[in-house]
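Exercise 7.
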Amino acid sequence: MDKNKRKIINDPVYGFIAIPREELYDLIQSPSVQRLRRIKQLGLSNLVYPGAEHTRFSHSIGAMYLMNQALNVLQEKGEDISEEEYSASLQAILLHDVGHAPFSHCLESFFFDSSHEDLSLHFMKDLNLSDIVTDIFSDRYKKRFLHELVSSQVDTDRLDYLTRDSFFTGVSEGVIGTDRILKMFSVHNDELVIDEKGIYSIEKFIISRRLMYWQVYMHKTVVGADCLLQNILKRAKFLAMNNDLLPNKYPITPHLLYFLEKGTRKIEDKEALEHYILLDDTDIWSSIKTWTSHKDKILSLLSNKLMNRNLGHLKIQQNVFSEEDLKQKRQALLKKYNNEFSLQEVEDYFSATNELHNRAYSFDDRKINILYKNGEIKEIYEASDQLDKNFLSKYIRKYYYFEQ
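Solution. The predicted structure, written as C-alpha cells, is:
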C-alpha cells in the first residue's frame, strides 16, 4: 500500500497538480480511472492533428485541478462549502468521464443504448462512494451550483477540454482565459454566476468553443475517419453475428467480441458492463490490425484503409443530400470497385450520410448569468455588447456524405 497519497502530477498544460486529498488518490488508482489512460480524448483526431495524443485520464486530472481552484475561489468569496461537499465535488469531476467508450464520442452508441453520462453514474455507484458524489453529478444535491461546476454551459469540464484540446492540437482559436474565468466565479441564489469583470472572458470562451467544434471536433477529415471506424465495426458485428468473424484465426479480445456477437446492450446488462469496463482503444486497434488480413474482403479492405490513413472523401453542404444524388454517388462507387460488392454493401460499409450541428449557446440549458456589483443579474446576451440573442440562438446545421 502506498502511504504517501499526496502526490504531485506534472501536467503539460497547468504545470504541477497536487492531489489534494487521499481519497482522490485512491480513486485515481482504481481500474475505472486507470482505464481512461487508454482512451484518447479526441478519438481519431490525431490523424489530422498529430499532437492530439492526450487521453481522457489527463483531461479528468485537469478538470479535477480546475474544480479545486474553483472551490477555493468560492470559499474565499464566503460561500459555505463543507469538507464533505468539497471532496465530493472533486470526486464527481474526477469520475465524470469513466463511462466513455473507446475512441470517446465516435463509438458512444455502439456498445450501449445509454449515454456515457449514464454509464459514468453507474460506475460511480459501483465504487461505493458517498451519496453526495452521485447526487452532485446527477444534479440531485441541494446546492445546485456544485453540479454546475461539473456540468453546465461554463463548467470545469469544458474549461479543461477547450484548454487541453487547444494545447495538444495547436489550434490557437481554442485558447481561453481559464484562470480569469475561475476567478470570476460566484454564487447567487444557489446558481453559479460570473462577476461582471469576467464578461469579456466569457465572450471569448463562447466564441472559442464554437470555433473548436468546426475546426477540431467536426473537422471533415476527423468525421470521415469516424465513419470509416464505425463501418469497420459494423462489418465485424455482421460477421460475428453470422459466425464468420473467425476470432481464433484473427485474435480479438473477449471484451470486444462480446459486443460484436451480442450487439448494442442495455445498461441493466451486468455482464455487458463487466466487459465494457475492460474495453479501451487498444482492443479496437489490435483487432483492426489483425483484420487487415481477414478473408472477408470488405473487413480487410476497410481495416487496411484505416491502418494506412486512407480516409476516403467527405463532402459537406448546407442542404440534405437528395435520394437521387445519393443513388448516383453509390452507383459511381460500385463502378469504382468494379462491381465487386453489392449496392447494399456499398451503402452500408463504403458510404455514410448524416448531419453536423453546433450552436454557440443553448437557451434550454443552464444560463450563463452575469452578476453586477449592485446585485443585478443579466443573462450573457443581455450583458454582452458582442453576443446578441440572434447570434447565440443560431443553430448551425450542415450535412455530409462520406465515401471510401
